[in-house]
Design a protein that fits this description.
Low-confidence stretches: 1-5
Structural class: alpha+beta
CATH architecture of the largest domain: Roll
Radius of gyration: 19 Å
Helix content: 10-25%
Oligomer: single chain
Shape: globular
CATH topology of the largest domain: Diaminopimelate Epimerase, Chain A, domain 1
Strand order of the largest sheet: 1-2-3-4-6-7-8-17
Number of strands: 17
Distance between the termini: 5 Å
Length: about 300
């Protein structure tokens, strides 16, 4: 924090997409100087801060209608957030920075195209072109010598068979997909029986994944419907993960478990996903504002 920032306050907006909640800083209007890596863990703290899965900056862009930068609850910067980008689309439309309809957002994945339809002064329904999934191990990234893709390969990241495998009806195979950020997907009969708080951090930090990874357990309910629980890299258990749901759609198609269009039931609500097996994944879901507030910059040290 600079000396000039002493006593300043930072305005923010709390928003969520299906319970995947972040603190958003509108950099079109907010000019205060701060360190986002330091601020993110402070504001994300659910006991001593605002509470959330992390921090997202909404900035002007020279190549799109807006730019999104996303920081996890531990302060690490991530490439993309599907639920977060929907909220970015809502914010820039609701504040009048861009008109409703087709909106472009610059992300760590590249420039994404959104279709933003306001459903009220504090909410929107947003369809996102999530881009083409990346399947090569080096693009995820994952260490896998001699393999062109990691589709239904043995889930060695889980280690030896554990007591919970039978209760969860785990299929001990995994598929890895990048949607601009890395995901590993495993199918089972009951996501509720997976001890995610124990398994998630072990898989996230496994040596197979040099930049860590988001972890998803998936229960197939029908060819067009799945139930998902997620351990998010740098954050932990989350109510929803948009890039993860997109990766689940891809993994289901590649392994022939699910159809091209699915509904993903997440703890925070449902997302609609479509993938034709070649091009972009499309994700549709809500974005909602919760409240606005201010944060003292005296608490953000350099």
């Amino acid at each position: 924090m600079t000396a000039e920032a002493e006593g300043e306050e930072l305005t923010f907006v709390k928003m969520h997409g299906l319970g995947n909640d972040y603190v958003y800083i509108d950099r079109f209007a907010e000019r205060a100087v701060f360190e986002p890596e330091t601020l993110a863990p402070q504001v994300a703290d659910r006991h001593r801060g605002v509470g959330g899965d992390g921090l997202i900056l909404v900035e002007p862009s020279v190549v799109a209608g807006a730019r999104m930068r996303m920081f996890n609850a531990d302060g690490s910067e991530s490439e993309m957030c599907g639920n977060g980008v929907r909220c970015v689309g809502h914010l820039v439309v609701s504040r009048g920075y861009v008109p409703a309809g087709e909106v472009t957002v610059e992300t760590g994945r590249g420039v994404l195209t959104l279709g933003v339809t306001p459903t009220g002064p504090r909410s929107s329904q947003v369809r996102v072109d999530m881009g083409t999934p990346l399947l090569e191990p080096e693009a995820i990234p994952a260490r896998a010598e001699g393999l062109r893709q990691l589709v239904d390969v043995p889930a060695t990241v889980l280690g030896p068979q554990a007591d919970w495998w039978q209760a969860a009806g785990l299929d001990p195979r995994m598929t890895c997909v990048s949607m601009g950020n890395p995901h590993v997907i495993m199918f089972c009969d009951s996501v509720a029986a997976v001890p995610l708080e124990q398994v998630g951090p072990l898989v996230e930090r496994h040596e197979l994944f040099p930049r860590r990874i988001n972890v998803h357990f998936v229960q197939r309910l029908a060819a067009n419907r799945v139930r998902v629980r997620t351990w998010e890299r740098g954050t932990g258990i989350t109510q929803a993960c948009g890039t993860g749901a997109s990766a689940v759609c891809v993994a289901g198609m590649l392994s022939r478990r699910t159809a091209a269009t699915i509904t993903a039931e997440l703890p925070g609500g449902n997302l609609e996903l479509t993938w034709d097996g070649r091009g972009s994944v499309f994700m549709t879901g809500p974005a909602e504002e919760v409240f606005c507030g201010v944060w003292p910059l005296a608490g953000v040290s350099r």
